[in-house]
Prior knowledge:
Elements: H1 34-42, H2 48-52, E1 58-61, E2 76-90, E3 97-104, E4 109-115, E5 129-139, E6 143-147, E7 150-154, E8 167-170, H3 179-192, H4 203-208, H5 214-222, H6 230-234, H7 239-264, H8 276-285, H9 292-305, E9 312-317, H10 323-336, E10 340-344, H11 348-361, E11 369-372, H12 378-390, E12 395-398, E13 412-418, H13 425-433, E14 439-444, H14 450-456, E15 461-465, E16 476-481, H15 485-497, E17 501-505, H16 513-531, E18 537-540, H17 546-557, E19 563-566, E20 579-584, H18 592-599, E21 610-615, H19 621-632, H20 636-647, H21 649-652, H22 672-689, H23 693-707
Parallel strand pairs: 4-6, 9-14, 9-15, 10-12, 10-13, 11-12, 13-14, 16-21, 17-19, 17-20, 18-19, 20-21
Antiparallel strand pairs: 1-8, 2-3, 2-5, 3-4, 5-6, 5-7
Helix pairs in contact: 5-7, 7-22, 7-23, 8-10, 9-10, 19-20
Amino acid sequence: MTRKGSDPFSSEPLEKGSDPVLSTPLQFLKGVGPRRAADLEHAGLITIEDLLYRFPLRYEDRSRLQPIASLKPGQMASIAGRVLACGLRSTRRVGFKIFEAAVDDGSGSIRAVWLNQPFLRDVFMRGQHVVLYGAVEMRGSVSLQMTNPQHEILDEEDAETIHTGRIVPVYEKTRTVLPKMQRRLVYEALQRLPADLPDHLPEDLRIRLGLPSRSAALLAAHFPPPDAPIDALNRFATPSQQRLIFEEAFLFQMGVLARRQSAAAEHKPVAIHVDDRIRASARAVLPFRLTGGQRQALKEIVGDLQKPHPMNRLLQGDVGGGKTIVALLAALVAMENGLQVAFMAPTEILAEQHFMNITQLLHASRFRVALLTGSTAGAARREQLAQVESGAIQLVVGTHALVQGDVCFKALGLVVIDEQHRFGVLQRATLRAKGLHPDVLVMTATPIPRTLALTVHGDLDVSMIRDLPAGRLPIKTLVKPESRRDEVYQFVRGQLDAGRQAYVIYPLVEESAKIDLKAATEMADHLAQEEFPQYKVGLLHGRLKTDGKERVMKAFAAGELQLLVSTTVVEVGVDVANASVMLVEHAERFGLSQLHQLRGRVGRDRHQSFCFLLYQSPLSDEARERLKALTETADGFEIAERDLQLRGAGDFFGTRQAGVPTFRLIDLVRDRELMDTAHREAARWFEVSSPTPGGIDKLLANWEQRFKLIGVG
């Protein structure tokens, strides 16, 4: 029997404040008034637990501060000394001022300068004891200086306290709460912790993995012992840090597995079966032979459809891999069993394209297909809604309009969500709630690295299509500087002369959307009048009204336009087989996965296709790595891994991506191995413990709130 507090299914571990001290609001700590409490809350720090489960930004060994006399240019250094003199001086630039301070530690002195931070004249005073951290650089030929160093003012009584003379945690500034104030708050909070703090981890697991106790880990993660290696601390690789990261990963994976088990306990009201009649119906709509990857994915999906509990499956496939036909065949199985299907796409253009393709494939079948988007209005919308509710329409293709309150299904049995990372999780949950435990298939052409799949889609089974349809030639990718534009245009001309079509893509960045849109519009005019006057050029961007977008896309798909200048609205799903050239302007401004998606708009037929990435110098190191990766591989799964390494998890889906869990300690790139271990250990715990449904409900009660995540299920 496990001791109190070690059972992940007790009510304690996932409830904020499993110990009364941890649930204490920060406003009750000494020195935290209403204003500071509000500033801390802005950073998500409300209780002592929030404060203690926020790692420092970095650690400085102030027990061995470097003497100023030993400093060398180019090194990062921490120094401590007295302010000899300080002041603000003006420069020739109007309104631009420099604050300077001369700091001496007895071995020598150094000049510290802060650019355009005039408020520092109210912070620094002559005679103060200060700690500075930053890069050391030469000033002229003989003296050294630090520019914009991080700084901390120490009081006389701080000389041998938590702020210096030891390894010191340095926290991120939170509005008016400076790193020094946070250090004091953390120290005070740690003094309040009981020695027998309840532990989230099962005791046998903690002992088997050699992990320190929870209270010991919290203490050492914030105030490490003198012999702790500073490099390991700054890599978050000490036993105490690893234990706390593992704790969060383990609790998260326990919740994921609990969700899976809870979903497995649900039962669908209609049993789906597959017989020879249904197989013949599927063969009748199939326009080509499926690849091996498509056949395997379809087998897994149809296997799930026939199970008594709802399917929760992710279908990953590279661009052009043929996911849609697999989803349509699954939809056909559901409809042949008397069920309705909802097919949701992220944009109206993509929904319209799916609608046209599906309608064409099902034209000889007995099933009716409808398109329902934000543009469907008035009598047409009312008529469609009535037919969906009566069951006269079996398959509905649409955008987020499908999750609106007035859409009612008679027998929704399967939900297909395309490019699911663009949907908020609440929209997914709302759509799923419209059916009686419907099967859910989510698809993405943005392959997801394994570490993220374990978190974002941990409750989903995964199918992958890694091969491409027969006869497709690999796309040739070429990176060219702006100075080679004329030869790129010459090549595009040759392709258009041969009867092919081309895309020219412009970036659209939110902060400069108007400027970028103007540039794209001017580029379309320039190409039409100066570069390609004998061909028809179209312009597509997000600010066009829906009917305008539809007209342009239909004209391009029909071959009435030879060149399409567009912003990234064509990134996902747009399919024009005759297009053989993708020219991306300012390629250095795009993310790696986005460039791969854009490249995937060509190469969709048997003609050789080309992708030109035109860039402006100078290139940052990261931009150079992105463009290099595109030329080295066409494998979307490998590109996704590289993208995660380059950008980190926070930006892989977009920093505020709905559906990505909010972790306090975990870094999905840094902590891959710990996530894998947590996944294995959580699965092992479930297997050994066989929790009851009541225990699972208890575990899930606070899990979603803790990780700020509501999922498909």
